[in-house]
Automatic annotation (TrEMBL):
SUPFAM superfamilies: HAD-like. It is an enzyme of class 5 (isomerase). Keywords: Carbohydrate metabolism, Hydrolase, Isomerase, Magnesium, Metal-binding, Phosphoprotein. Its EC number is 5.4.2.6. Transmembrane segments: none annotated. Belongs to the HAD-like hydrolase superfamily. CbbY/CbbZ/Gph/YieH family. The keyword Phosphoprotein applies. PANTHER family: 6-PHOSPHOGLUCONATE PHOSPHATASE (PTHR46193), HEXITOL PHOSPHATASE B (PTHR46193:SF18). One of its GO terms (molecular function) is metal ion binding. Its cofactor is Mg(2+). It comes from Cutibacterium porci. This is Beta-phosphoglucomutase.
Amino acid sequence: MVVMDSTPLEEKFHAVLFDLDGVLTPTALIHMRAWQEMFNEELSRHQDQSPYTDDDYFAYVDGKPRYDGVRDFLASRGITLAEGTPSDSPDTHTICGLGNRKNDLFTAVLARDGIQPYPGSRRWVHVLHEHGVAMAVVSSSRNAAAVLEAAGLAADFPVLVDGNRSKAEGLPGKPAPDTYLRGAELLGVPAEQCIVVEDAVSGVRAGAAGGFGMVLGVNRGVGGDRLREAGADRVVNDLDEMAEEMA
């Protein structure tokens, strides 16, 4: 665990690796509604199943690759489906088909309503730029590029490790540290000189497992205690706290 001292962050750390959903942008809200609609439709096919809730999202889905989230939640309800393939139609009754259905629901809402970054997150990104700190986005989402573009943040992050790159390069998803380690590698910064910023338990575990200089948890609902238990060195409620500290 990192030892806090009075040395300015920009002198101790040379890069910041951000998760996207729930850290830079409130896309978690769109994801949560899309998951809820998809899962409750699926649960209606099975007897004696209570509705999917936000607690299920945080316990089984948050921060994971899409198909892993489908598989893990259904397993929690004792439901087993065929895996299928990523090319399955959204109407196909498989793990991949349900994941694709959720993605269609998400992209429809994003296209219709757009997305704005959290003001505090935008401010810290600006401060980091001023201090010459390298930055990357590391996200399980295959929609990360579209979200960054919609939020007006695409130009701020020359390095993006998303679900598409992870699939192409065979990188295991969070809570494995591989995607964050790949982000650090692409920035050319050793892991011990990087800060990982996460709001999900699985993402915090990934940062803790990777030997990074600091794992910064952002409490967007999962709970500060849970983030610390997962390995966060520090927890804030909004990244404006970090911007204030470095301003």
